[in-house]
Amino acid sequence: QERLVESGGGLVQAGASLRLSCEASGRRFSSYAMAWFRQADGKEREFVAAISWSGKNLDYADSVKGRFTISRDNAKSTLYLQMNSLTPEDTAVYYCAGDPRGAGGVYDYWGTGTRVTVSS
C-alpha cells in the first residue's frame, strides 16, 4: 500500500503562485504514473495534470494549460505541481494520485488533499 501526503496549499491572492508537493512513502514511486486532481466545494473532482513514470509524458486540463506545471523527482519520491497566475476558480482541495501499473488513467493510490484558496 502506498501512502501519499500532499503539502503546500494555502490562502493566496489572485495572480500569485504556489507549489504543491506530494511525497510517497513506498519504494516503487519511480514506476508509478502520477496525477493531480482537484475538487471544489460542491463540485465533482476533476483532473488537473498527469505525468508518466519517466516524467517525459505530460498531460494537462485545458483550464490549467500554460499556468500549471507538473513534475516529479523520483530520487525523492515526490511529485510537484507548480501553479502560477492563480485565479479564484482554482480554489479547491488538491489531491495527488498514483497508478502502480504505470499507464495512467486508473489511480489506485490517493492522498488526503491540501486546500488551495485563491482570493480575488
Note the topology.
Blueprint: E1 4-7, E2 10-13, E3 18-24, E4 33-39, E5 46-51, E6 58-60, E7 68-73, E8 78-83, E9 92-99, E10 109-110, E11 114-119
Short overview:
It contains no helices and 11 strands. It has 120 residues and is an all-beta fold.
Report what the structure shows.
- The protein is an all-beta fold and 120 residues long.
- The chain has no helices and eleven strands.
- It has strands spanning 4-7, 10-13, 18-24, 33-39, 46-51, 58-60, 68-73, 78-83, 92-99, 109-110, 114-119.
- Strands 2, 4, 5, 6, 9, 10 and 11 form a seven-stranded mixed beta sheet that branches.
- A hairpin with a 6-residue loop joins strand 5 (46-51) and strand 6 (58-60).
- The protein is globular, with a radius of gyration of 13 Å.
- The N and C termini lie far apart (40 Å).
Main β-sheet: number of strands, strand sense, barrel status?
A: 7 strands, mixed
Mean pLDDT: 96
Distance between the termini: 40 Å
Shape: globular
Number of alpha- plus pi-helical segments: 0
N-to-C SSE series? Answer: EEEEEEEEEEE
Low-confidence stretches: none
Our Rg estimate from Cα atoms comes to 13 Å
DSSP strand tally? 11
Structural class: mainly beta
How much of the sequence is in beta strands? over 45%
